[in-house]
Amino acid sequence: MSVAAKTEEILGLARSRAVHDRERLLLAIVDLCDAGDGAEAVMSAPPVQALLSSIFMSLVVEAERDIRRRLAEKLATAAWAPAALINVLALDDIEIARPIIAASPVLQDQDLVRLLVEATIEHQIEVARRPHLGLPVVIAILKQNEPAVLTALAGNISAEVSGDEITTLVQASRRIASLRSPLTKHPALTDDLAREMYLWVGQALRQALTARFRLDSAAMDAALAESVREAHGGLPSDHERHEVTEREGEREEMEQRLLAKLDIAGQLRPGYLLRALREQKLSLFIGGLATLGRFDPDHVRRSVDSDRPELLALACAAVGIDRSVFPTILALVRELNGGRPGGGPEGERRASGAFGPFAPDIANAAFRQAAGRV
Questions:
Q1: What is the pTM of this model?
Q2: pLDDT at residue 346 above 50?
Q3: What is the number of structural domains in the chain?
Q4: 289 and 365 assigned to the same domain
Q5: Closest CA to 138 of 149, 297, 147, 180
Q6: How far is residue 164's CA from residue 113's CA, in Å, rounded to a whole number?
């Protein structure tokens, strides 16, 4: 069919108010996307563009999910696609939004920054993975400081990350173990930053850093042992403390990998947190709670170490833990954490009040706000 004939067909469908013609219009555009240069000629025609601007948004909103998904897949690389439509699809369910966020040339830096503010964590992760991510978007990701999004950014070697940005990621890797592996491979990592990372990564990543940057492993291990001895007042011996640090680093890495796999598989649930505590794995509980709630792990740790058990209660409420289960969780955490979080009977009363009545998203927002001030 000629460009002129295809244009007339689309115009005819667009003018129709019949529901089946509206769906036929979207499907015609989907099919047209496979037509190469011919598609651009048709869709760029002024009459078509004028009609699309006036009716496309309502069409897409009313369309079946499968049609929206097919449309997103076809329009992902189309430079002629209407910007408003692309932005709507980018905010759709993540399965629909993913190809748009990953590849659409229509999305600009300001659109991607808006997704970081308005969309879900899954959308934000896709933004961080987008090839050739610009500096304004990278800076926005770093400011938000969301562990899962930072980890996606660390693995995106085509993003505009260098200088201050890679330094910020390396510093964040002190508390976010999932950042460490991708950062050891990042092309912007420098010798000086590699030496910093050496002090808090596990043995396998130390070997990777040593091989890549030709570090003096004996000197680095001696410096690590010295820093550990100073931090703990010289007790116990350097060798013993060094071995403990290695084991703790490796265990943290293993726990992070386990939690990530469970989360991706949809198997990380509130009940797993209680199981971790009963197995006396406090760090696994903290990491699991942070992963489930998409919290900063450092905020969870500080809440657990505080004298405000209501903060831990807010975090638990945010991930769907029942009020009746929380006293058991609090008791187990205190048993494993030297009596913390403290607060006594008054703290326990405040903790009980943290369970509502309100929705989990309210508890989530309240925890983020309160934990940031601890």
A1: 0.56
A2: yes
A3: 2
A4: yes
A5: 149
A6: 19
